[in-house]
Hints:
Strand content: under 5%
Radius of gyration: 20 Å
Strand order of the largest sheet: 1-2
Shape: globular
Amino acid sequence: MSAVPAFAPSAAIETPVAGETVAPAPKGEIKALTGLRGIAALYVVIFHVNGHYRFFPTFQPFIRHGYMAVDLFFILSGFVMAMTYAGMFSDGFSIKTFKQFLLLRLARIYPLFALMTLLTAVLIGTVMTKVSTVPDLPKGLIYNFALIQAWGLSNSIVPPSWSISTEWTAYLLFPLSLWGALKVPRRWTLVGLVLSFGVLAAIAYGPQWIAKQPLAYRHGPLDIASSYAIGTSLRCLASFFIGLVAYRFREHIPSRASLVLLGLTIVLLCFKGSDLFLVAVFALLIMALSHDEGPVARWLHTPWVYWLGLVSYALYLIHDLVLRIVFKMLPGWGVHGLLPEAWVAVALVVSIGLAGLSHYAFEKPSRRWFRKFLVGNYQTGSASAPIKAS
């Protein structure tokens, strides 16, 4: 990821409060956050595998909470966006700067998203018609390619990409959110934080029109992913803002707290009604890991965990298609002979393998090309030490 800063991202960001500054952004890549993203992506994959193969009942409460990994993504995204791009808006808002920001984000997220959307649409329209449908596919393609399908316009052709659409909304509102999280006096930032949790509470327990699905039929209170529910975008925007606020106050949570916070996260993931508490703990965990120190950070630095973080975006976009092929199409073609557990292993290995292949063969090269094509000769503030946690 990269930015076009007014000054280097490591510079302090001034606030309106006399004598108050937000602490300097960490320099270089925070490997612990990259690793955390990889674990979250794997958690999402296992959550979706559970829809095809039921894991042991003992693990069901934990696995069914896998949708909360997306909320972790939203918070982490807000945190890293503030760390990487806040410097661009240090002198206030300008159309030119905002355009640069959006183009850089498009260069990061769009090429692989567009490829997977097109590939999935072609398969749905040909060999996958019996296992997957998207109403009014041509119209849906237009909304998906515009990244606005989650605005109540269409289903996501790549089902997990609903979150990409909602994050695009967060990017469009980024200057305003950044001002509310970093620029105003702390008391107003805290008011915004409380309001964000209020929005999440309304999504979780409010009127049915917000979520479009009764609470009893969800995996948990914040399991809102319908493109036609206003709660879907609000879920992202609230968690994204919480991530921005976490960046502002990150120095208040030491790295030594990460082990306790990780343990608390695992415990809460075993209880269905813990979603709002989990959002708070996720934010605190990210704040603690942002120091990139301590036993949890060292484990997240492990080569395979860190690598999983590097390919996490590809894994997130690719795995659903792999699961549909392995668990729906292959049986329909008469392909049998393996135990169910073996098919789970095949699905995981193929998903991770294709994620790695697409990351190095397509995602990275296309990102560089899009940056050159869209952004031109603009230099980015993190070019020498890229932050890969988002």
